[in-house]
Amino acid sequence: MADLARIESIIDGVLWMPLRQARILERLAVHLKPKRVLEIGTLHGAGSCYLGAIVSDYGGHVWTVDLPMADHQRNPCAEELLAKCELTNVSVIRRADGAEGWFLDFFRAKEPPLDLVYLDGGHDWKSVAAQLVMAWSALRSGGWLVMDDVQNQKYPDVGTLFDVSGTALSALHYRIGNWGLMMKSRPRDYVPATSSASNEETFRNG
Fold first, then answer.
1. Which of 35, 128, 160, 167 has its CB surrounded by the most CB atoms within 10 Å?
2. What pLDDT, on the 0 to 100 scale, is given for residue 4?
3. What is the pTM of this model?
4. Torsion of CA 75, 81, 83, 86, to 10 degrees
5. Residue range 16-26: mean pLDDT, rounded
6. Residue closest to 41 by CA, chosen among 88, 92, 79, 80
7. For residues 37 and 114, is the Cβ–Cβ distance under 8 A?
């Protein structure tokens, strides 16, 4: 298993993904065994480091996409953190057309589908809707979409779109804290839990 405690010690409080959230991804990876992972929204690269460490157990690769680096993304930047963590399986991609442009290239090249998408990019309705639709199209059957800030009152569009999309797609979807998790294709034997708490317990123990 990836040494996430070591990654945490290197990241040392860099925003935005804490170790407790990374543990959720680690648990998910045990079942998913992800090899192709996309992160939308790099910022300082904390999430990129955790994702890179987790998928390294399965010979996987992470692509993390963001807009060209702004001042608030420096000190540290993702490349610096990844180097400190000695992770070589993460590609940092910065482009003016952002995730939407990356997805267009992905579809044009007819790339193999993704196992996991972690969505933490733009938080307005238009950005979230566009990235969610593209991410869902890029996922393989049985793949997972993880969305950040679904319960953040500063970004109400994120949670609304997560709930609406999950219902419209008839997808297994639930919340764990500030995250929303959605699986592409509902297992036939899945029985919806009566609360988010029981969903979390099912996820942790299932």
1. 128
2. 97
3. 0.89
4. 160
5. 94
6. 92
7. yes
3-state secondary structure the chain: CCCHHHHHHHHCCCCCCCHHHHHHHHHHHHHHCCCEEEEECCCCCHHHHHHHHHHHCCCCEEEEEECCCCHHHCCCCHHHHHHHCCCCCEEEEECCCHHHHHHHHHHHCCCCCEEEEEECCCCCHHHHHHHHHHHHHHEEEEEEEEECCCCCCCCHHHHHHHHHHHHHCCCEEEEECCEEEEECCCCCCCCCCCCHHHHHHHHHHC
pLDDT tens-digit profile of 161-185?
A: 999 999 999 999 999 999 999 999 8
- Tally Cβ neighbours within 10 Å of residue 93: 16
